[in-house]
Specification:
Arc Repressor Mutant, subunit A, about 0% strand, single chain, 2 domains, DNA-binding, globular, HTH_TetR, mainly alpha
Length: about 170
């Protein structure tokens, strides 16, 4: 059923399908769906958890204290570039792992700018996630060298934004 919901999200973008559509796509009855999941939110959470495991298996942990101490542009290579390129066939990836992403960015900001007030850290983390989501949409809309060029632009924007908010000068 996780594969079914992933296929539906690929076809619909970020539009979350209903449980009946998920069951139909999986080739099971709605009753069978409910034997495994309480509702569509629980199947989306399970898919998000699977994607996080696959992402970390492919790229290792993204939000580490070591990454947080890197210059902003190198930080974007280590922590955000994998998110821009991971599973291009799943455009809803960032929506599904948003909580994990927000937590990771907050933790990095705590290491990078320990004096930053918690409310500001939350706003900066939200902004980084929004920039990443918008940038990933642009990357996925292109192929080959043009996708690579958009990836470089997104990394530059996030790196400069982090520099401006954490007091770190770009390299």
């Amino acid at each position: 059923m996780l594969d079914a919901v992933a296929r539906l999200l690929c076809r619909t973008g970020a539009t979350v399908p209903g449980t009946t559509a998920i069951a139909r796509e999986a080739g099971v009855s709605p009753g069978t769906f409910y034997q495994f999941f309480a509702d569509k939110e629980s199947v989306l959470a399970a898919l998000g958890e699977r994607l996080v495991r696959e992402l970390y298996a492919a790229h290792g942990p993204l939000f580490t204290a070591e990454h947080a101490r890197l210059p902003p542009q190198r930080l974007t290579d280590a922590a955000f570039a994998p998110l821009l390129s991971f599973q291009p066939e799943n455009p809803a990836l960032l929506m599904l792992i948003r909580a994990e992403l927000l937590g990771g960015v907050r933790e990095m900001l705590t290491v990078r700018a320990p004096a930053m007030p918690a409310a500001q850290r939350d706003r900066v983390a939200d902004m980084v996630c929004a920039l990443l989501q918008a940038g990933r949409a642009l990357v996925l809309a292109h192929q080959g060298p043009e996708a690579d060029a958009y990836t470089a632009e997104v990394k530059a924007v996030i790196g400069r934004y982090l520099s401006s908010r954490t007091g770190s000068a770009p390299p």
